[in-house]
């Protein structure tokens, strides 16, 4: 039929070549790293050889692919996905939900959030409203995106005293995530965030100020400026796509004034 658009799914060889090049590896580099012959690797990439399920898993491991992309490579090779992807609100994930909630509650009275791969808010603790004061309620509607909330002119941005520095920090993290995952959704999010206005200079490279050991978040507050630094926690042995993509960001007070304000409510 005229006008019909035919789309073809990538083969396992296509995906293998794409990720090898994305990781900036030659066939020789990957063959040495994976302890296989360059000839065999070339045959897999060109479709002249069908890799076994174990070989697909082995090459995905050597390429450090996220679990979601490992499943895609397995399906392209004709095998069933190995890693399940269960919604966080399902019964089998109760133990994960409880673990996340325990970490969030245990961090009070300091703010903490849980986000998925796309930086959508999954959960937060009781200290979070202090950070979200004056944020447009529309930005908090599900799916509420933590990076959009942070940098949008109707979000936290007007209250961030060091917006250029914090913006550069967040965009740098997102760029590294895009580089690692090649996720189209994250790439689109990055383009969106880059379009947000910012009157402050945004450093291309994070330069520490006098006495700085981390990039602080400096937030304007009625009691005076609050300062935070953050840590990120992930599950160490994930075997589920959803679990692998969860991250908990916990904010700590960076000075005594912030500690006192948070502890007194």
UniProtKB/TrEMBL annotation:
<dbReference type="InterPro" id="IPR041413">
    <property type="entry name" value="MLTR_LBD"/>
</dbReference>
<dbReference type="InterPro" id="IPR001387">
    <property type="entry name" value="Cro/C1-type_HTH"/>
</dbReference>
<dbReference type="Pfam" id="PF17765">
    <property type="entry name" value="MLTR_LBD"/>
</dbReference>
<dbReference type="Pfam" id="PF13560">
    <property type="entry name" value="HTH_31"/>
</dbReference>
<dbReference type="InterPro" id="IPR010982">
    <property type="entry name" value="Lambda_DNA-bd_dom_sf"/>
</dbReference>
<feature type="domain" description="HTH cro/C1-type">
    <location>
        <begin position="16"/>
        <end position="70"/>
    </location>
</feature>
<protein>
    <submittedName>
        <fullName>Helix-turn-helix transcriptional regulator</fullName>
    </submittedName>
</protein>
């Amino acid at each position: 039929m005229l006008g019909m658009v035919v789309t073809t799914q990538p083969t396992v060889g296509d995906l293998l070549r794409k990720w090898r090049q994305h990781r900036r590896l030659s066939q020789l580099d990957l063959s040495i790293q994976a302890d296989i012959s360059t000839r065999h690797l070339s045959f897999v990439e060109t479709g002249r050889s069908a890799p076994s399920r174990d070989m697909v898993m082995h090459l995905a491991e050597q390429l450090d692919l996220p679990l979601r992309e490992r499943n895609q490579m397995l399906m392209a090779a004709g095998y069933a996905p190995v890693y399940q992807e269960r919604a966080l609100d399902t019964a089998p994930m109760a133990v994960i939900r409880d673990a996340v909630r325990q970490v969030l509650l245990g961090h009070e009275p300091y703010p903490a959030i849980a986000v998925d791969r796309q930086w959508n808010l999954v959960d937060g603790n009781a200290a979070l409203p202090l950070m979200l004061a004056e944020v447009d309620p529309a930005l908090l509607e599900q799916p509420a995106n933590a990076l959009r909330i942070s940098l949008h002119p109707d979000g936290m941005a007007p209250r961030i005293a060091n917006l250029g520095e914090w913006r550069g920090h967040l965009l740098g993290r997102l760029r590294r995530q895009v580089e690692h995952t090649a996720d189209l959704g994250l790439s689109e999010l990055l383009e969106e965030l880059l379009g947000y206005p910012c009157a402050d200079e945004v450093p291309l490279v994070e330069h520490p100020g006098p006495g700085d050991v981390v990039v602080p978040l400096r937030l304007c507050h009625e009691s005076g400026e609050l300062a935070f630094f953050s840590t990120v926690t992930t599950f160490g042995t994930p075997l589920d796509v959803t679990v692998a993509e969860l991250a908990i960001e916990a904010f700590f007070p960076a000075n005594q004034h912030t500690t006192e304000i948070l502890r007194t409510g």
